[in-house]
Amino acid sequence: MNAPDDDWLRLDQQICFSLHAASRAFNGVYRQILKDLGLTYPQYLVMLVLWEHDELPVKKLGEHLRLDSGTLSPLLKRLEAAGLVRRERSARDERSVEVRLTGEGVALRGRALQVPRRIAASTGFDPGEIRALRARLDELTTALDAAALAEPQGGSPAGGPS
């Protein structure tokens, strides 16, 4: 009674579950590595964007991280309470809140430099394999974003396992 179509409903055939499991495994490794910095993984992502851009409106920060303001605001409050960032109303547009690093936030960057190396070592992949995987995942994200925009509400599934 096991037709090939039935295999599509097996958990081990779902790419989404493989990505979910890998994400949870990454979170476990990050939890251990980031403990020394006093950051959670989502806070680390916020800091990465700010180390790259220095100062951003909350809206732009959310766009970089693919997070809405309801998720981002509590993260920023905790980072501000820890003395790593400062939030201020924009002088140009009082509806906008700017986020910038404090001196302590800037200094934390130096301690964080070891994080990517430790994560890379944890994967067991060489740098080329990591770059190739990241490129493929970026392609996957782009394709899924496009599919989500094109998919009518309540549409029927097509293709194979997801």
Succession of helices and strands: HHHEHHEEHHH
Task: Kindly estimate the percentage of residues that lie in beta strands according to DSSP.
Answer: 5-15%
Strand count: 3
Q: Helical residue percent?
A: 55-70%
Radius of gyration: 20 Å
Could you give the distance between the termini?
22 Å
Oligomerization status of the protein chains: single chain
- Structural class assignment: mainly alpha
Biggest beta sheet summary:
3 strands, antiparallel
Q: Features of this protein?
A:
162 residues, mainly alpha, three-stranded antiparallel β-sheet, 64% helix, globular
Description:
This protein is mainly alpha-helical. 64% of the residues lie in helices and 8% in strands. The chain has a three-stranded antiparallel sheet. The mean pLDDT is 92.
Give the arrangement of secondary structure elements.
Layout: H1 4-7, H2 15-35, H3 41-53, E1 55-57, H4 58-65, H5 69-81, E2 85-89, E3 97-101, H6 103-112, H7 114-123, H8 127-150
Antiparallel strand pairs: 1-3, 2-3
Helix pairs in contact: 2-7
Short description:
With 162 residues, the chain is mostly helical. The chain has eight helices and three strands.
